[in-house]
Design a protein that fits this description.
The complex is a heterodimer of chains A (358) and B (443). Chain A is mainly alpha-helical. Chain A has one domain (2-345). Chain A is 68% helix and 3% strand. In chain A, a hairpin with a 2-residue loop joins β1 and β2 (148-149). In chain A, α1 (2-32) packs across α7 (177-201), α6 (107-137) crosses α7 (177-201) and α10 runs antiparallel to α11 (274-294). With 443 residues, chain B is mainly alpha-helical. In chain B, α6 (123-152) crosses α8 (179-208). The longest helix of chain B is centred in the middle third of the chain and has 37 residues, at 212-248. The radius of gyration of chain B is 23 Å and the shape is globular. In chain B, 51% of the residues are buried. The chains are: A mainly alpha (358), B mainly alpha (443). At the A-B interface, α3, α4, α5 and α12 of A face α3, α4 and α15 of B.
Chain lengths: 358, 443
Amino acid sequence: MEIFWYIVLMSMLAIYVVLDGYDFGAGIVHLFFAKKEKDKKAITNAIGPFWDANEVWLIASGGVLFFAFPTLYASSFSGFYLPLIMILWLLIFRAIGLELRGQIHHRLWETVWDKAFGIASFLLALFFGIALGNVVRGVNLGMVENGVSAHEAHYFFLPLWNPTFSPTAAHLGIIDWFTILLGLVGVVTLTIHGANWIIYKTNSDLNDKLRTVIFRLNFVLLALVILSLVVWHVIAPKPFLNFIETPWLWIFPILTLIGLVGLFWVKAFKKDGIGFIFSSLFILGGFASTAASIFPKLLPSTNSINPSLTVYNVAADEYGLSVGINWFIIAFILLIAYVFIQYRVFKGKMDDIGYGEH
Amino acid sequence: MEDMLFYDRMQFAFTITFHYLFPQLTMGLSLIIVYFKWKFLRTQVGHYNDAAKFWMRIFALNFAMGVVTGIPMEFQFGTNWAKFSELTGGIIGQTLAMEGMFSFFLESSFLGLFLFGEKLLGHKLHFVTGFLVFLGSWASGFLIIATHSWMQHPVGYEILSNGKFVLNNFTALFSNPWLLPSYLHNQLASLVTASFVMASIGAFYILNNRHSSFGKLFVKTGVVFGLVSSVLVAFPTGDWAAKNVVEHQPVTFAAMEGLFETQDGGSEIVLIGQPNVVDKKLDNKIAVPNILSFLTYKKWDAEVKGLNEFEPENYPTNIPGLYYAYHIMVGLGTLFIALMAAGAIQLWRKKLYATKWILWSLLFFLPFPYIANTTGWYTAELGRQPWLVYNLLRTSEGISPTVSSGNTLFTLLGFIGLYLLLGMLFLILVGKIINKGPVTTEA
């Protein structure tokens, strides 16, 4: 039963990263590459009717986490207190940037909200990468000091950084050189992903330039991924153990590789949606590979006294989890229907269907 | 530890108070917009569709504010109330996860279609998307109040030896006797807010001699919806909700009514007075004998238990705050019925649009339903103290064990600053929409 909800939660989070990922990426492209008003308009129209529903995947994932793994929810949300609240603030800024920009036609007003949207998107991509890094690296559960737990075994608290920015120091911080590295992977990945979405959903003049951007950034991404894999060994012992024991899991790293390598042909794709498929593959594969690498752990412990939080020791009780399956299946079928309707109505290029024109 | 609890409570109270300024309008307003769209479909009179379009702009802005201020609520269960989440997550996580899966996806998927899809969809389908947005927001309210009801009156649970609450009866969460009265009371209160806002803006247009034909429609609709909802929010739903408190939280009821001592031969109802917790009495009291006994038990001399019958450690932690919140809500609720009844009489006599004092009153009543809704929720929440889960888990036992008060104060200050900005932006933009007013589409 725990495993069912683990798969549900991980799938929902993966879908969230792919969906909200493209609108974060669109925000980063908006910040760095869109100079003309026309280009900016094209970008915001490309995510206009979707971004709000994309964000609901985060809220719903949070709900499922709360319901199925309450101990993990309590431990990680209080332990990562400051960065989570800051993510909230950024999400708010980003949302009002998108929604309020068009309300008043004044150059300064528009500039302010453009920047709010772009900068918040950039920082969120960075933060989500850093968050992934923290989960891989693990935390000092129970806040052990000299062999003694200062708190209950599953609670911890991390400051934003420690003075050494080292992922192997005795006192960890949210931001260290390893998590920053994964943060950069997040930014580059989502920039490529967002650019692919813009190419897919618009006829913008920007598209040709974006293909070049994707091509070049893909080299950066390849370098970052190799570097992360190398230092991963320093941080987490035996990261490939699960893959050796359960060989079918190799499908995830292979998907990641296909997504990454495929994007080098971005300029040759005949259809505008193909690039988006490849970057989605890269994200889904990478997310699944990371989860598979630490399974059954959900949040590793960096000390030897308190055990890691795993699928088995943070789950809710059996009755609650099994009764939840009933409503979840109904809700999920409805959800598929909504997504289908939504993407059906707004299918094709946004400029072709005249979205955003008044 | 003490100031930690204080900052956690302040942050939750501040963010939820600010958040609920928006859903209380959008839940009620979505119903009235659906009504306008329905009238338009039936009569084909474009005026109704134009009215719906105007209110959709206000709805969209409020909805966006509700969404962005709502996300921090879900996060705070984990960030600030980790112990509570850990112990009860198997139960309240159930209803909160359902809210995400059933309501938020429904609302967010169809809101975009509703706001921008009128041309794309045609009028009938557009009406359907509006109805689905209404359904999503009311389902959201239902699941939140199911969660709230479990905290007020826990059902269907057992407590394990490690202190964890586990669910043993899923349907009990929805047949909880606390749920239906609270839900109906709350949704009608939301309709009161929407009616007053509509009537207020309508009165503004009439008094201003601008958009008068729309102004009349808004005032008329606001007064009719407002009278019905103002009456129903008091009787029977408010009465039902209060009877739940009498039965399950008698000490809270005593504090709400400012009843320090049990009174022989029936209890008086206090209209005005200031609770003096030190001397255990009300200062400057104006009260009517025996009414409270009658309202509570339908017998003039029934005994209503005073605070003296309970252990002080189980008293609500803020007795004066609870007493004021309750009395402000009830007092305003009474005024709402009076004003809307006067409006309805003049409407029936076809003199409403010329009755200046009613129009002016409607205009200036705009903030009061917001205050009544807020104080109503304060009554429920302060009334539950000192418990998170009534009689089972104290509020002080629910906070995050590792987060320091310095961190919580930092984020509380951040929220205050951010929400101040949001509030100002909201007022500017809603002012702009109202100033521009409804637009008549050429048929």
